[in-house]
Design a protein that fits this description.
Number of helices: 11
Helix content: over 70%
Strand content: under 5%
Number of strands: 0
Radius of gyration: 19 Å
Oligomer: single chain
Distance between the termini: 23 Å
CATH topology: Growth Hormone, Chain: A
CATH architecture: Up-down Bundle
């Protein structure tokens, strides 16, 4: 995952490892409900909409980060950050570990994956979406307050914020069917970097934007994969693995 911290748009290596490992499972827990055809049909419709949203969000996350690297508004500052991070592996590690969603433990090994239930994967998606709800609102506010911020960046931030809310609604509806005991107000990681994002010092502010766009892009890719994988398990169970 570390290489992706210093590149504008490549997928994290741990995420790629997760994706390849997931489809090599021999067995995984399926939907933890005895669902009627009507319920399964409702879930399919919800997942159909959820996968469209998660895919759009993942593309927007990559596109916004690319824009930060290419637009004169931020390109010099972002490339300077890359050069600084290159100087120390420790700096890279510390920067990555500063992502506020790190405590959401997405399984990275086959053994961990086998121990993860359908419900737990749903919780990961729920908690990640909740963890980004307030930060995205603040991102839009702070970018809007910067006169020099280009529309191409601001519009993508606004779109991601709106789609995050929409996807959260779909996931909550899915959870209400699968397991109503899972509550929206469960603990999830909180973001604490608002002061840096609002900083008058441009170096501090743009480093916050750099890390925000990195962590967001990675999480949106993870969410997209998990939502699609959950849909596959719901509809096809073991067929999901034989197709890869």
């Amino acid at each position: 995952m570390l290489p992706s911290l210093i590149q504008p748009c490549s997928s994290g290596t741990l995420l790629l490892l997760l994706m390849s490992n997931l489809f090599l499972w021999e067995k995984v827990s399926s939907v933890p409900i005895n669902a009627s055809e009507a319920v399964l049909s409702d879930l399919k419709d919800l997942f159909d909409n959820a996968t469209v949203l998660s895919g759009e969000m993942a593309k927007l996350g990559v596109s916004m980060r690319k824009e930060f690297f290419m637009n004169s508004f931020s390109s010099d500052k972002f490339n300077k950050i890359i050069l600084d991070l290159h100087k120390s592996t420790e700096k890279i590690t510390q920067a990555f570990n500063s992502c506020h969603t790190v405590p959401i433990n997405v399984p990275e090994t086959v053994e961990d994956v086998r121990k993860t239930s359908f419900e737990d994967f749903l919780k990961m998606v729920l908690h990640t979406l909740l963890a980004w709800k307030e930060p995205l609102k603040h991102l839009v506010t702070e970018l809007s307050a910067l006169p020099e911020c280009p529309y191409r960046i601001l519009s993508k931030a606004k779109a991601i914020e709106a789609k995050n809310k929409d996807l959260l609604e779909y996931i909550i509806r899915i959870i209400s069917i699968v397991n109503p005991a899972i509550k929206e107000n469960e603990d999830y990681p909180t973001w604490s970097d608002l002061d840096s994002l609002k900083a008058a010092d441009k170096e501090t502010q743009f480093f916050a934007l750099y890390m925000f766009s990195f962590c967001l892009r990675l999480d949106l890719e993870t969410i997209d994969f998990l939502v699609n994988f959950l849909k596959c398990l719901l509809l096809y169970d073991d067929v999901c693995y034989s197709e890869f």
